[in-house]
Specification:
Number of helices: 4
Number of strands: 0
Distance between the termini: 34 Å
Protein backbone atom coordinates (compact mmCIF):
# COMPACT_ATOMS: atom_id res chain seq x y z
CA UNK A 1 0.00 0.00 0.00
CA UNK A 2 1.44 3.31 -1.08
CA UNK A 3 1.18 6.29 1.19
CA UNK A 4 -0.12 9.50 -0.34
CA UNK A 5 2.56 11.92 -1.42
CA UNK A 6 2.71 15.50 -0.23
CA UNK A 7 1.50 16.53 -3.68
CA UNK A 8 -1.47 14.17 -3.39
CA UNK A 9 -2.35 15.61 0.02
CA UNK A 10 -2.10 19.17 -1.28
CA UNK A 11 -4.30 18.40 -4.27
CA UNK A 12 -6.84 16.71 -1.98
CA UNK A 13 -6.85 19.83 0.21
CA UNK A 14 -7.43 21.98 -2.87
CA UNK A 15 -10.30 19.80 -4.05
CA UNK A 16 -11.82 20.00 -0.56
CA UNK A 17 -11.48 23.79 -0.68
CA UNK A 18 -13.26 23.90 -4.04
CA UNK A 19 -16.12 21.80 -2.71
CA UNK A 20 -16.43 23.87 0.46
CA UNK A 21 -16.78 27.16 -1.42
CA UNK A 22 -19.43 26.20 -3.99
CA UNK A 23 -22.32 27.74 -2.05
CA UNK A 24 -20.37 30.87 -1.16
CA UNK A 25 -19.46 31.69 -4.74
CA UNK A 26 -22.97 30.82 -5.91
CA UNK A 27 -24.23 33.46 -3.46
CA UNK A 28 -21.65 35.95 -4.75
CA UNK A 29 -22.92 35.42 -8.30
CA UNK A 30 -26.56 35.53 -7.19
CA UNK A 31 -25.86 38.93 -5.65
CA UNK A 32 -24.70 40.14 -9.06
CA UNK A 33 -20.97 40.16 -8.37
CA UNK A 34 -18.19 38.22 -10.03
CA UNK A 35 -16.04 35.88 -7.98
CA UNK A 36 -12.44 37.06 -7.69
CA UNK A 37 -11.22 34.26 -9.94
CA UNK A 38 -13.39 35.55 -12.79
CA UNK A 39 -12.35 39.21 -12.38
CA UNK A 40 -9.40 40.10 -14.64
CA UNK A 41 -8.48 43.15 -12.54
CA UNK A 42 -8.28 41.14 -9.31
CA UNK A 43 -6.35 38.38 -11.05
CA UNK A 44 -3.85 40.90 -12.38
CA UNK A 45 -3.36 42.40 -8.91
CA UNK A 46 -2.59 38.90 -7.65
CA UNK A 47 -0.14 38.30 -10.49
CA UNK A 48 -2.23 35.46 -11.91
CA UNK A 49 -2.18 35.25 -15.70
CA UNK A 50 -4.30 32.18 -16.35
CA UNK A 51 -7.87 32.76 -17.48
CA UNK A 52 -9.15 29.36 -16.36
CA UNK A 53 -11.08 29.92 -13.10
CA UNK A 54 -10.06 26.61 -11.52
CA UNK A 55 -6.41 27.10 -12.41
CA UNK A 56 -6.50 30.66 -11.02
CA UNK A 57 -7.85 29.31 -7.75
CA UNK A 58 -5.29 26.51 -7.76
CA UNK A 59 -2.42 28.96 -8.34
CA UNK A 60 -3.41 31.13 -5.39
CA UNK A 61 -4.15 28.12 -3.15
CA UNK A 62 -0.76 26.55 -3.84
CA UNK A 63 1.10 29.75 -2.99
CA UNK A 64 0.72 28.81 0.66
CA UNK A 65 3.23 26.04 0.02
CA UNK A 66 5.80 28.20 -1.78
CA UNK A 67 8.95 29.10 0.06
CA UNK A 68 9.94 32.72 0.04
Amino acid sequence: MLLPTIEDEREAAFQSYLESTVNYFAAVEAAGAAPWFEDPVKLAKLGITTTDPTEARRELFYRRYARA
